[in-house]
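Saturday, quiet lab. Running sequence design on the structure tokens for the scaffold JK sent over.
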């Protein structure tokens, strides 16, 4: 890496973002929004190689910069390798978006075991920790960085039979607030985007009645789309949000307030 690559935040078209779980759904929408804003985007995936390749081709066809990287972001060695490969490809990493997720089964309290909680913590505490630990050294050297956690409004709602998931997402919010105070003096902001239920391809089998009922309860009266979350993350990754850190930006059509 050259001295120029390690100095300052640079302009938007010099910056590089890593989006985990970027092959589909919210991650793909986030990556597309960042690429539109001029950032080079490292598209992380674990299983969706074809989808990640298609997204990369779409971004590059539109004049953007993107590359796809397979890695399990809950594995310490794979995260270290992912970081090295992103630096090899783009020379720097300015924006880290922790979006990767796994199954979130409904499970009543009586049937919840400690390994069920650990399964959720793997994605929402361990993975962000491993990723941020790799990324912050370069951000500190440049005096600039953005870390955006993709959380959930379940922290505010507390839905039943989701204790393990809610606890892990609440812990991710705790990381956000602590890291914001720790990293702020280094020019690094850390924020938490909290989507409500936004249908993606993983919800293809959801009955229409369920989606209509949910939408009817929202003050805005309609469902959100993945691009709504993409825009929220792109805002927090931009200079427009330079004085915002440690905050939660909820994207759920008004399902919660405050």
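Result came back. Writing it out in full:
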């Amino acid at each position: 890496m050259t001295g120029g690559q390690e100095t300052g935040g640079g302009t938007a078209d010099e910056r590089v973002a890593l989006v985990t779980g970027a092959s589909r759904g919210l991650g793909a929408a986030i990556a597309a929004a960042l690429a539109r804003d001029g950032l080079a985007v490292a598209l992380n995936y674990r299983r969706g190689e074809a989808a990640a390749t298609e997204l990369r081709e779409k971004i590059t066809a539109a004049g953007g910069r993107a590359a796809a990287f397979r890695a399990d972001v809950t594995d310490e060695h794979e995260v270290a390798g992912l970081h090295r490969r992103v630096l090899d490809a783009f020379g720097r990493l300015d924006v880290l978006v922790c979006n990767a997720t796994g199954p979130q089964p409904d499970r009543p309290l009586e049937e919840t075991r400690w390994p069920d909680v650990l399964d959720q913590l793997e994605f929402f505490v361990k993975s962000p920790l491993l990723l941020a630990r790799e990324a912050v050294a370069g951000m500190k050297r440049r005096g600039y960085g953005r870390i955006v956690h993709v959380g959930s409004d379940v922290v505010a709602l507390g839905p039943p039979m989701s204790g393990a998931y809610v606890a892990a997402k609440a812990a991710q919010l705790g990381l956000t607030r602590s890291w914001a105070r720790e990293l702020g003096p280094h020019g690094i902001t850390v924020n938490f985007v909290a989507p409500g239920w936004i249908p993606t391809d993983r919800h293809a089998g959801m009955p229409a009645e369920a989606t209509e009922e949910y939408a009817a309860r929202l003050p805005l009266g309609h469902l959100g789309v993945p691009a709504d979350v993409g825009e929220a993350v792109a805002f927090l990754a931009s200079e427009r949000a330079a004085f915002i850190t440690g905050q939660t930006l909820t994207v759920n059509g008004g399902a919660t307030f405050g």
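Notes for JK: The longest strand covers residues 188-195. The beta strands are 16-19, 40-45, 66-70, 95-98, 145-150, 188-195, 248-251. Ask whether to fix the surface positions before the next round.
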